[in-house]
Structure formats: C-alpha cells, structure tokens
Specification:
The protein is an alpha+beta fold. It has five helices and ten strands. The strands form three sheets. A four-stranded antiparallel beta sheet has the order 1-6-7-5, with helices on one face. Strand 6 and strand 7 form a beta hairpin. The longest helix is centred in the N-terminal third of the chain and has 15 residues. 39% of the residues are buried.
C-alpha cells in the first residue's frame, strides 16, 4: 500500500499541474458520480493528509467541493499531456480531469468520493507526519496510550500517526533495534517518532524511497523485502514473518540478531 511519502509526491505533481486552473472537462468512471460534471471548477489546492489525497475545487457557482481519494493497494494518480499514452489500461481509470493541455488520471483508486466538507473524512487520523501541523508530542502520546500493543501494529494504526505503512514499519524498527512485536511500553517512543518524521520528510519527493542513505539500485532499504539475505549491519540472514491478527496481519522483516525480542 502506498505510504505517506508516496501520496505526498502524488499531491505535489497534481498541485503543480492543476492548481489555479479551471477544469475544462471531468469524467468520473464510477456509477455514483457518472453524471457529475465539474467543468469550469477552479482547482484551489491539492493536499495529502496521511495516505489520503484531496483535490479542492470551487464550482463556477462558488460552491466548494473536494475530490477525496485513497490509493489503497493499487491506486495511482498520473499527470501527462492530453493525447499521451496512459501508463495503465483505460478500463482501470476511475476519474479523468482535464485542464488546458494537461490531463490527470486516477487509476484503481480504492476510495473516490466528492465531499462538500472534507474534514470528517480524516478526523480520525493522528498527526500527519508530512503535515504543516505535525505534532510529535501528540503522536508519542497516542502510541503510549496502548502500552500492550506491539509497536509494529501501533505504527500502522493511522489513528496514532498518519503516513507509516509496511515498508517504514520494518525499516523504523530495524533502525531503532526494536523487534516489531515488542510492546509499545518497552519502546523509547520519542526517538522512533522523530526518525519516522525525518525519513518520510527526506523521501517525500524522491522517486525511490531510501532509508540507508545509499541511493544505488538495490541498496536503498535496510531489511524490507530482504528475506534470507544478509543484514546490512551484521550479516545475519533477515527473516520474514507475520504480525497482527487475520485478516489484518502483515509481513514484517527482521534481523534476529539486531532486533532481539
């Protein structure tokens, strides 16, 4: 699932292409909005909130409306010149927005809705790691509120802090030498939260996510996706396991020597 930095980067691309322009055409390819026409609406802002993305518009009548999307597992927003070949099949497009010679296409969006008031859609989220109002102290407080919860599960709970996904979960725990199954009460939370903020901030506009500091191909991550390969720190084989209860259990990658339980 795309994580906070991926969604931030998608919002940045859309913002650069669309903000300040009036839509010349809109094409919603989901039954609920099949007859919706946002032609003439002005794009006022594009923003990410955790893993959620909002395109805020104002209709010619002056009425505000927001396009709310969530990429979930397979979603993608693409921006290109009208007439350019799409990167995904046409039948996977859920919405097409055109402004002048620019076309923004949302493919395989897990959530797509129009909202008069976008606030309630993200009211349940904890502090956004990439938000202007990032609040590290509140994120630490949220995590500490469930002391018996494994830290690897708590990090994925967007109600605690918004933006961490499965990749960052494994990388953060490794870098802090914490096993993901460790109860939150046994973890030094402020440095972990600070590291999460610094990593996502550093990667928010990168095409390839990097946690090791090395940008060479195949050297970007410490443990994620490296099952049975040598730990970059000690040489022990990285192990892949599962954490959580079905159907919400997710894979974790751990160095058994660097991250003792």
């Amino acid at each position: 699932m795309p994580e906070g930095d991926t969604v931030f980067r998608a919002a940045h691309r859309l913002r650069t292409a669309l903000v300040g322009k009036n839509l010349s055409d809109s094409d919603f390819r989901v039954p609920r909005y099949a007859t919706t026409d946002l032609s003439g609406a002005r794009v006022e802002s594009v923003r990410s909130v955790g893993k959620h993305l909002f395109i805020d518009l104002r209709r010619p009548s002056g009425t505000p409306v927001s396009i709310h999307s969530h990429l979930m597992m397979e979603g993608l927003w693409d921006v290109h010149a009208i007439g350019a070949k799409w990167r995904r099949p046409w039948h996977t497009a859920r919405v097409v927005l055109r402004a002048g010679d620019i076309e923004a296409v949302g493919f395989d969006l897990g959530v797509l809705e129009l909202l008069a008031d976008p606030g309630p859609a993200v009211a349940h989220l904890g502090p956004d790691l990439l938000g202007d109002d990032w609040d590290a102290a509140r994120a630490v407080e949220n995590l500490a509120a469930a002391p018996d919860t494994p830290i690897g599960i708590a990090l994925l709970d967007q109600r605690n802090l918004a933006g961490v996904g499965n990749v960052y979960r494994s990388e953060l725990c490794f870098m802090r030498r914490v096993h993901p199954a460790t109860p939150t009460a046994a973890v030094d939370l402020p440095p972990l939260v600070d590291l999460a903020h610094r990593l996502l901030t550093a990667n928010r506009l990168r095409v390839a996510r990097v946690t090791t500091g090395a940008t060479g191909r195949g050297r970007e991550l410490w443990v994620y996706g490296r099952d049975r390969r040598p730990c970059r720190r000690c040489g022990t084989a990285v192990e892949r396991g599962m954490l959580g209860e079905p159907p919400a259990e997710r894979s974790i990658y751990v160095c058994p020597r660097c991250q003792t339980r």
